[in-house]
């Protein structure tokens, strides 16, 4: 029983990382119709900015409020990079899908190369707070506190996103634009003004995922964003484009499936089962769990 509890909490921690990356990715695609392959770069920027701030930013550190300040620095860095990418590289390419894909793929590769040139290709030990390396007994299982940190952070981000989308003006514009962008534009609302905000929100969530992934894995590397982005895309497709709740449900399913199958099966079998789950969902419900089926 203790093993099941431990695997469940660990799987939920992994699901939290997937959700933080997928939530912004889902909103960006649902509203702006941009398949952003550079989204993993925002995660890597957040991770390395947090790592750098913990050792160099006055007042920041690897424990207590110093670590919180380092994470905030990383989130701000990811947010700024995401907004700049939208303004400089994506905005001129709306409605030009092929060019978007080429630019974002190229930016992703260039970002990895830039991080390798600046920080080296080898993983760097991440400055984890001492309390995250402790364990707590939960239903007979000794659960690392860093898993619980990830779960709590994802729940907070989910709540903030839902509140923003439901009770703010720009949130309502984003929700309406995801449902029917043409109708919102016909009402005289310039939806593109919300595009930069959506990119910034997605960048902030991805940067937070980068900082927390360093806590989860204990290190940070230039390719960490690209590896997590693959499963984030799977989560977005399973959950339904533009649906934050759909991404949350899909992230839990993917994280738990991957964790249990990898533990009880052979190494890598969990990844295969995740792809199989994607195929089943697409065959059963092509628009995703929370997506709306297209009408003729």
Automatic annotation (TrEMBL):
What are the UniProt keywords, alphabetically?
Amino-acid transport, Cell membrane, Membrane, Transmembrane, Transmembrane helix, Transport
Instruction: Provide the membrane topology annotation.
Output: Multi-pass membrane protein
**Per its UniProt record, what Pfam families does this chain match?**
BPD_transp_2
Give a Gene Ontology cellular component term annotated to this protein: plasma membrane
InterPro entries linked to this entry: ABC_transp_permease, BCAA_transport_permease
Listed transmembrane segments: 6-27, 34-53, 65-89, 101-121, 148-165, 194-217, 229-256, 263-284
Q: Where in the cell is it found?
A: Cell membrane
Q: Which domain of life is it from?
A: Bacteria
The record's comment on protein family reads: Belongs to the binding-protein-dependent transport system permease family. LivHM subfamily.
Q: What is this protein called?
A: Branched-chain amino acid ABC transporter permease
Q: Which organism is it from?
A: Catellatospora coxensis
Q: Which gene encodes it?
A: livH_2
């Amino acid at each position: 029983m203790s093993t099941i509890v431990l695997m469940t909490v660990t799987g939920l921690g992994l699901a939290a990382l997937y959700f933080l990356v997928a939530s912004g990715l889902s909103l960006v695609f649902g509203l702006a119709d941009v398949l952003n392959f550079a989204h993993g770069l925002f995660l890597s920027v957040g991770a390395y900015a947090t790592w750098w701030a913990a050792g160099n930013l006055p007042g920041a550190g690897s424990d207590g409020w110093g670590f919180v300040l380092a994470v905030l620095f990383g989130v701000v860095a990811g947010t700024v990079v995401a907004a700049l990418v939208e303004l400089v590289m994506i905005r001129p390419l709306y409605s030009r899908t092929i060019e978007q894909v080429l630019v974002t793929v190229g930016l992703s590769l260039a970002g990895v190369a830039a991080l390798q040139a600046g920080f080296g290709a080898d993983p760097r030990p991440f400055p984890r707070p001492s309390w995250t390396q402790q364990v707590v007994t939960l239903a007979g299982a000794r659960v690392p506190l860093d898993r619980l940190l990830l779960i709590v952070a994802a729940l907070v981000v989910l709540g903030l996103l839902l509140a923003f989308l439901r009770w703010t003006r720009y949130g309502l514009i984003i929700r309406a634009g995801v449902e029917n962008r043409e109708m919102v534009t016909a009402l005289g609302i310039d939806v593109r003004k919300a595009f930069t905000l959506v990119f910034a929100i997605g960048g902030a969530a991805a940067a937070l995922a980068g900082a927390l992934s360093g806590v989860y894995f204990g290190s940070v590397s230039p390719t960490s964003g690209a590896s997590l982005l693959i499963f984030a895309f799977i989560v977005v497709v399973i959950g339904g484009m533009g649906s934050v709740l759909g991404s949350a449900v899909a992230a839990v399913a993917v994280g738990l499936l991957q964790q249990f199958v990898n533990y009880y099966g052979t190494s890598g079998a969990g990844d295969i089962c995740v792809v199989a789950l994607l195929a089943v969902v697409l065959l059963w419900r092509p628009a995703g769990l929370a997506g709306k089926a297209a009408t003729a």
